[in-house]
Amino acid sequence: MFYWHLLVGRYPQVRTMAQEARDRLAPFSGLHYTPAKWLHMTTLVVGPPDSVSLAQGHAMLTEVSRLLAEVSPVTVTLGRILYHPQAIMLGVESASELKPIRDAVRTAAEAIIGRRERIGGATTWTPHITIAYSTADQPAAPLIEALETSLPARELTLDSVSLVIQHGPERLWNWQHIGSALLLGEGDAL
């Protein structure tokens, strides 16, 4: 599957937050943790490799790079914990600041791949970083009590978006990084 991700595992503050969450959740079984290397915010699901070629992937990367060349890096705040029956996530504050990135990857995917309905992802987008996936039925209350509703807030300045191919099921983490489009603008976000 081709994805556009904001890869955030390279940022020490994200790794620290993920580790703090893991430490608090260590007493619980039934959780699968995102490897630090692949901590990410999914920006757009493009489609399976049988409907998107590698050449199209490279063309999208070129187009997204062009579209984002004047966009400045974006600073967001992490800290709020989001709970879903299938996952525990870090919420992203100031997510509206990420709209130019989402728009660029969607525009490029639609231009290169074609029909809009072939491009996956909801029309609304709630940026988040999944810390753990649920692998077992268990009551949520003890997990929420252990992790609470937030971690100490940290800012994160995002300077690129990456095209990734996921080979096989997500939890195998057999990902291939195709390339990144840089946010090269020189606005206030630097």
Give structural attributes:
190 residues; four-stranded antiparallel beta sheet; five-stranded antiparallel beta sheet; alpha+beta; 9 strands; 4 helices
Describe the structure.
- A five-stranded antiparallel β-sheet has the order 2-6-5-4-7, with helices on one face. The protein has a four-stranded antiparallel β-sheet with strand order 3-1-8-9, covered by helices on one side.
- Helices cover 27% and strands 35% of the residues.
- It is built from four helices and nine strands.
- Helix 2 runs antiparallel to helix 3.
- The model has no long low-confidence stretch (mean pLDDT 92).
- The longest helix is centred in the first third of the chain and has 15 residues, at 54-68.
- 31% of the residues are buried.
- The chain is α+β, with helices and mostly antiparallel strands.
- It has helices spanning 12-25, 54-68, 99-113, 140-147; strands at 2-7, 31-33, 40-47, 74-84, 87-93, 128-134, 150-158, 160-166, 175-182.
- The protein is globular, with a radius of gyration of 17 Å.
